Amino acid sequence: NGMQCLGRTETAVNNLNPVFGVKFQVDYHFEEIQKLRFAMFDEDKCATQLYEHDFLGEFICTLGVIVSNKKLHRPLILANGKPAGKGSITITAQELSDNRIITLTLSGRKLDKKDFFGKSDPYLEFHKQGEDGKWMLVHRTEVIKNTLDPAWKPFTVPLISLCNGDVDRNIKVLCYDYDNDGGHDFIGEFQTTVAKMSEAQNSVEFDCINPKKQKKKKNYKNSGIIIVKSCKVGMEFWFYHFSGVGIDFTASNGNPREPSSLHYINPLGSNEYLAAILAVGQIIQDYDTDKMFPALGFGAQLPPDWKVSHEFAINFNPTNPFCSGVEGIAQAYSACLPHIRFYGPTNFAPIINHVARFAAQALQQDKAAQYFTLLIITDGVISDMDETRHAIVQASKLPMSIIIIGVGNADFAAMEFLDGDASVLRSNTGEEAVRDIVQFVPFRDFRNAPKETLAKSVLAELPQQVTQYFKQRNLPPINSAPE
Asked: Which CATH architecture is the domain 245-473 placed in?
């Protein structure tokens, strides 16, 4: 059905409550809606094709929903849309926002013999301790057949998966002898931390202990030794958040009651402003757990005293300008149109500074991983160019980006100028922007294209802008373990 297979878990033998060790690292393109399908099968040894295994049920959702929930527990559904009996699936996800990865190489020596006719078939499991004290499986190595002195292949996992990025968090390593029938024999275990394993310049050894044997035997030493031959911490990965919409209500947009106006809502209940909000917002909203977005307007006179405002809440609630999801922004937008008077001038600086204040605040509280994105939809001609350039140059030092969508057919040369793709943006005093934070897209290029195409090109530059920000500030990872 056009979906490609991202990967399969291992088979849990003879087990109705399996915990799968295989992790799927999905590159998340937040500019796209990424649909995922989790299908559960009962393995049939004779089957050669996936569909020949017995289908137990499936669950379908978007990656955005998983990212924002962190943990989902859902019933399995059969192909006919009916629930698959009692079966359910739990999906746990972790944002790889700490960009450190860890590579471990381990081996074993003189492990206990568990197989009657041969030696043992050892494998290791790594578990981390959760906040609730419970242990959770993080990684399972491959099985090495018929040996008491195994050498496992080096493996790499994100540090955040192994220990939540905390090098002093307890990790439990368990050693088992693999059995085909699923009744794997326990060999022994030990506890450690990344900090302790990092001492493996020339390898660190751990006694592999079986507590039952330890209690019974007086002179019990261990059930073998596990050696951490090497432990390296390096770098990879990044992450960000969405922070609101600014809408242009200046007179150049035309009278919203007349069909020639860009704000005129046509019989289909849409216009370019609404189309732009929905196209971009639908993608971004999956990544925000509470889906509450501030929506601000600029360039209009407001009741009751008809003063011009360049940063007003379109839901007319200045203390709580938040709208629920993209639909909420669209509703508030449509509802406010009859109550305001389009005016001017087209000042961008106030709304950019508004979001910059939030970004600066987050920075002071040292929430290095927070990144702010402002979406401005406008008909184009900026009145406060000097102030806007100054605001953007200052904002380029903060964790924020600005996406501008130009609606209508105006001359957007000034907008292209703010989008520093061609040359570095300077403020009127000559100060240069430390990085390009503006992405400008003319809506007219996408009028007849599918929504996804607009969202893709609008959000395409964002990941580089985020990465560049963190690199320049030399921000996380903090206290990286030695190479």
From this structure: 3-Layer(aba) Sandwich (3.40)
